[in-house]
Amino acid sequence: MLIVKKQTQKRLASIVLMIMVTGILTACNTSTATTSNGSNKEEVAEADGFAMGTVILQKVYGANGQATIDETMERIKSLEALLTFNAPEGDIYQLNDNAGKKNVELDPVTLKIINKAQEVAELSNGAFDITIGPIVKSWGIGTEQERIPPKEELQKLLPLVNYRDLVVGENSAGLKKAGQMVDLGGIAKGYAGDEALQIYKKNGIKSAFINLGGNVVTLGNKPDGSPWTVGIRNPRPQDAASGQQIVGIVTVADKAVTTAGDDQRFFEKDGVRYHHIINPHTGYPAQSDLMSVTLITDSSFNADAFDTAVFVLGLEKGKELIQKLGGIEAVFITTDKKIYVTDGLKGNFKLHDESNEYQYNE
After folding, report:
1. What is the pLDDT of residue 241?
2. How wide is the angle at C-alpha 46 spanned by C-alphas 43 and 52, nearest 5°?
3. Quick check: helix, strand or coil at residue 121?
């Protein structure tokens, strides 16, 4: 029996999660917020939108909050047009369309993201590889065409997945083989998060929050001086409508929080979960000892770039990569429902498991 988990359901679950933990509203509005001591009233704008294939929530404090939100959404949509492989006028579409033919001149933003992805690929020994496009398209997970590709099909496609075949120049890039495809789905939202942060700062905003489908970026503290509270999803909730969908809480300020997990986009067949995080070495959904990993760091771009690699590598190798990089904290949730938190985060993490299914290894 095939059980399909639609993308819409996951988007709504992500929204509900963040509403429950942070009190974010999904209606567009501007109001006045009062700090916990009843003073320092500050105008707050809140809105949701849709771009990059996900729901985007923003909460911005300040007199020009709504204008800032609008500018941010405009920027994110321009990045979507540039970076998605489905937009004929975009860089990635042109890069893929000319695979095996010629290098293509690219926008500096596209080149920056590609160069970062190549760096992550090298550091993770190919656990993260943006040339995974042909395999991602074959599986179609999260689309109406999702399926289990025949083994023979994957064997033919695997030779097309090799980040070393993506040649990057000063102003251009090219793929060596016809049929190769770049997919920036595992890194583009992270870059967009940092872009949002820059827009907030440029407009004089001191306190703000953006959630790009689970990629969270915070600016400063809340106006009352308290940190932002971000929920970590339970990857195996018994009841998605209950508080059991949150398994932990982290408190942060001026940090990005991103998660890679097998519960974000998947389908099930014959009791097997087929999720969207593909192991570039096998062509199949990654089968590490993790159900999810959440990274907390100063940059959304960095966090989003590495969370997929860490998930594919698994607990021990993922820890080693994080330690090598420095400046990144993490929450690991293993397949046997144990939670591990890096030392620098322990004072800011709290178990929130109403189901009592998880063991927190302090």
Report:
1. 57
2. 145
3. helix
Which range (23-27, 88-92, 126-130, 301-305) has the least confidence?
A: 23-27
CA distance 229 to 212: 16
Identify any residues that bridge with 29 across adjacent strands, giving them in sequence order. Answer: 46
Question: Which CATH number characterizes residue 90's domain?
Answer: 1.10.3980.10
Domain membership of residue 3 (yes or no) is: no
Residue 244: pLDDT band (50, 70, 90) is: low
Measured CA to CA, the distance from residue 250 to residue 252 in angstroms comes to 6
Q: How far apart are CA 277 and CA 128, in angstroms?
A: 10
Count the domains in the chain. 1
Domain that holds residue 150: 84-175
Phi and psi angles of residue 141, each rounded to the nearest 5 degrees, phi first: -65, 130
Q: Using one digit for the tens of pLDDT, what is the confidence trace for 265-278? A: 899 999 999 999 99
How many secondary structure helices (H) and strands (E) does the chain include?
A: 9, 19
CA pair distance 150, 130, nearest whole angstrom:
22
The tokens 């009841």 sit on which residue? 239
* Chain segment 283-332, per-residue pLDDT in tens: 999 999 999 999 999 999 999 999 999 999 999 999 999 999 999 999 99
Return the number of other C-beta atoms located less than 10 Å from residue 35's C-beta: 14
